[in-house]
Amino acid sequence: MEGRYLVNFNSKELPQHETEILIVGGGIAGLYTAWKAVEEGMRVTVLSKGTIEDSNSGRAQGGIAAALGKTDSPELHYKDTLLAGAGLCDINAVKILVNEGPSRVQELISMGANFDRYGDELAMTKEGAHSKRRILHAHGDATGAEIMRTLASQSEAQEALQILEQHFMIDFLVEDNICSGVLAYDENSGQFRVFRGKAVVLASGGAGQLYQYTTNPEVATGDGVAAAYRAGAEVMDMEFVQFHPTTLVLPEAPRFLISEAVRGEGALLRNSNGERFMTRYHGMAELAPRDIVSRAILSEMANTDQDYVYLDLTTLPRERIQKRFPTITATCSRFGLDITSELIPVAPAAHYMMGGIKTNYHGETSIAGLFACGESACQGVHGANRLASNSLLDGLVYGRRIVDAVKKYLKCNSIGSNIHFVCESMFDPAGNFTALKKELQQCMGDNVGPLRTIQRLSHALAFLNKNDWLIKHRCRTPQEMELRNMLEVGRLIAQAAMMRTESRGGHFRLDFPEAMSQWKKHIIIRR
Ligand code: SIN
Questions:
Q1: 198 sits in which H/E element
Q2: CATH class as words, domain 245-348
Q3: Pocket test for ligand 1, best of 257, 269, 392 (most atoms within 8 A of CB)
Q4: What is the CATH architecture of 433-525?
Q5: φ/ψ of residue 243, rounded to 5
Q6: Residue 367, beta-bridge partner list
Q7: Where are the domains of the chain?
Q8: How remote is the CA of residue 289 from the centroid of ligand 1, in Å?
Q9: pTM metric for this prediction
Q10: How far does the centroid of ligand 1 lie from the alpha carbon of residue 392, in Å?
Q11: pLDDT tens across 141-198, in order?
């Protein structure tokens, strides 16, 4: 066991908590899976690293894509998803997503999710690479918050569901390739605790915090992927990181997301000379696939020697902007910008991890009893570049499928486990972890960002290898454990990016700028 776990522990000495289904992560994928499992009569505990409000899901603005429009169809949604995915989507995973998606969204509506409407009809917007208006939204640009509100209010009423906030999952308990629970740190009591489940579902979200510029919240540090990898799970497609093209660039402001739906409603991108430039890069102009728009913006930034380009909404009526994008209007206004009359300075920032723990179409990982869904999972549905607003749908569709698989799994493995673990690691050095975290974020942004080369990737890997000593480090605080996870995930991304000597979707190599047919395959890494 030595070196595999992040902290020293003797599981017998720690408080024990038993449940049937243990879910790690309180975003849309985790909460929806929990709710469906409870509906099937299971007892569920959800561990959330922060509070339920802290998730990436809660911040989703643009919306949730589903073929519900009269002139739309799952086939069209399927085609758009494959095109954006740049030849690497798993076609069966996409078929499942687009065919099962509409029922999942209808289910959210029947649970009380209040999507925007024009009269009786659901209002739908367009985003990059969609051939139809198929994106549902709520309160204009607060779709994730509305879905999370719906799921959280359903959860409150369920006795069989316990949600524990401020519980940081540290490691999976795995013996003979069977997962039987997790070791977690309860920040409320300052105690380590063992949580045992007959099945464990990982829905812990992404890793945007690996980069200095990101739309992701502080909690998005890739902990689930790192822990599953440590436990021996296979990870896939880690080189594909999505950079959202338009995040706010203002002194003092965080890299706040300016939804792609803004462009869907007619906003234009202009360089600092005032020129509209996207028409020079792609036939779909501002609504080209996200990776293409991000690279075009970077190229304009370089050509004009500026740190941003502009998003121009000023041709849209003021009332329409305020009603359709109230969160964006209010946030920009807090930083002194009136988006109805002024241009918004924007630049790309890390947004979404297409890769993750490899699963099949039922969320099963390569470790028995461990399932994964949402951003921490990868069944190949997003390929090399996720189609906008497919991620919330992914969480619902594959969360639902996990519940079916767990039911079957429990029929054959209903006993659970009493395995105990004693782990000791070797070093306990002191270090400046805050500075190291910043260095890592800078290094990832500079070298493993949207534009990569062998030199940049070598530089990143050298940095990551230099800090490899942390692997055997006995962590003492959640911040150290997080940093350890970030280094682990950073290395997975950099290694896969180094291996893939071509450009495809979110992975662009300046030294190999073309897509190569021999690279139409996935990179799978296992410890
Ligand atoms: C956005 O509103 O632009 C984000 C939607 C997404 O990431 O799918």
A1: strand 191-202
A2: alpha beta
A3: 257
A4: Up-down Bundle (1.20)
A5: -105, 120
A6: none
A7: 245-348, 433-525
A8: 12
A9: 0.95
A10: 10
A11: 999 999 999 999 988 878 999 999 999 999 999 999 999 999 999 999 989 899 999 9
